[in-house]
Amino acid sequence: MASLGPARVCCCGRRPASRWPWGWLLPPRPPGALLPALAVLLSLLLLPRPSHSTALGEEDGVAEAPPAPSLPPTVIRTRVINTKYGRLQGFVSHASGPHGAIPASTSPATQDSEGGTRHRKPVDVFLGIPYATPPVRSNRFGPTRTPVPWDGLRPADRLSPVCPQHFPDEVLAVSRALEASSPAASAAAEAEALRRMPRGRLESLKRLLPHLRRQSEDCLYLNVYAPAQVAPPEALERYPVLVFVHGESFSWNSGNPYDGSILASYADLVVVTLNYRLGVLGFLNANAAPHLRARVANYGLMDQIAALHWIQNNIALFGGDPTNVTLFGHGTGAACVNLLMVSPTVMPGLFHRAALLSGSALSSWAIVEDPVFYAVRLARRLNCSSPEEAAPTATGAAPSGAAAAAEAWREAERLEDCLRAAPLSALTAQDAPPPPPAFLTAFGPSVDGVVVRPGFRADMAAALLASGGGGGGAGVDGDSGECR
Fold it and tell me: What is the domain partition of the chain in residue ranges?
């Protein structure tokens, strides 16, 4: 493979060390190969298209998703990993097939810059690892809980279902083209889709959507791709860790389609992709007074924090360095990463660097400014009680201060209790959430006073000014890792 020159990455500045324990930097190693490899990860959707779809569960939110295809019998198994919650075993592969489906014994060769050939390094692949308790039944609209330990050896060789999806009209147009019963119907549906988007976007969605058919509320799983090692845990080499937060939308997509094998093989990195709750299930906020009394509402962001805790507790067993964790995402995923960078809920040391690709928490679409409006509209459609204007007191004045906060809390709790009992199909129906303005979202990150503070924008601005990163020259030198 041709050698790559030093990388320079634009960044948004860095907080003073006393307030911000991590820099907005990329891992110091490998300096040259990281950024091109990031592009490979985001552009390649290597998983074969599944040939089946599944209906979502009606009662408890757990889909009867058919199992993923079994691995070929020739695939080599990894060493057994004794995690904090139980034992699991993945498989060894070279980064040449979908999620490493080609075993190491049949690996292809790659031409290097001198015209010679060398084999891609083998990768340990672990798919569908639970990092939290399934957010179903009473756990719906609740904070993320640690996973339940399991007995025996858990195979980590199949991708989990994705979280329930709510597709916009343009994505549904592509879906109709994929599912058309005849070539003529497919061509007509594709022509309709092309009126909404360019050809490149259409082809990208055609590759992505088949990976999003197996849906379930039981979706809080992650995937680990690590350079293959056979040493005992205490003798493993520790590699930098990259944690990928998927983008596209706060209402759909998954970490499953993004194969981290290429990065792990070429760049000597441990790559983690993950699912987190989306749409109404991930971002319902019915609290009308978060500035007076905080209430957890950004469940999707809480999922990401829970995954980071899991990584700190377990990633060393896979050959990752828990003291060198970089969190990165694209689009809406970048906005999530940016929010975690300034969130008081994130403990120091959960991650140490961050990379934002094509998005930030300051983007116009990153925050839902009036989440209660959409929560009330959804509740009314499902015949649930909903927060109304604060009731007048005996003197005729609306309650304020502590009384208003307590009333807003109670109303939010009643609304969530009603929606918690609603069928999943009703919550995710195409016409359930009211449509937001163009380029915005009905259910996404919002100020809840817990994960996202009311003054988060001021915190970000103060950090940028204090670090001198407000100018256009901020960046990271790929050789030295120094800010400039």
Answer: 8-165+215-369+448-477, 371-427
Length of the chain: 484
**What topology is assigned to 8-165+215-369+448-477 in CATH?**
Rossmann fold (3.40.50)
CA distance 10 to 475: 4
Query: CA-to-CA distance for 304 and 321, rounded, in angstroms?
Result: 18
DSSP code of residue 298: -
Q: Are strands 239-245 and 320-330 parallel, antiparallel or unpaired?
A: parallel
pLDDT tens-digit series, residues 164-197: 999 988 899 899 888 888 888 889 888 988 988 9
Question: Which residues lie closer than 8 Å to 443 by C-beta, 6 or more apart?
Answer: 250, 251, 279, 280, 282, 283, 284, 368, 371, 374, 433
Quick one: tokens of 385?
Answer: 């009680």
- Percent residues over pLDDT 70 in the chain: 70
Cα 15 to chain center, whole Å? 24
Positive or negative torsion for Cα 366, 377, 387, 414: negative
Q: State the average pLDDT for the chain.
A: 78
Model pLDDT for residues 354-394, shown as the tens digit of each residue: 999 999 999 999 999 999 999 999 998 898 865 454 344 34
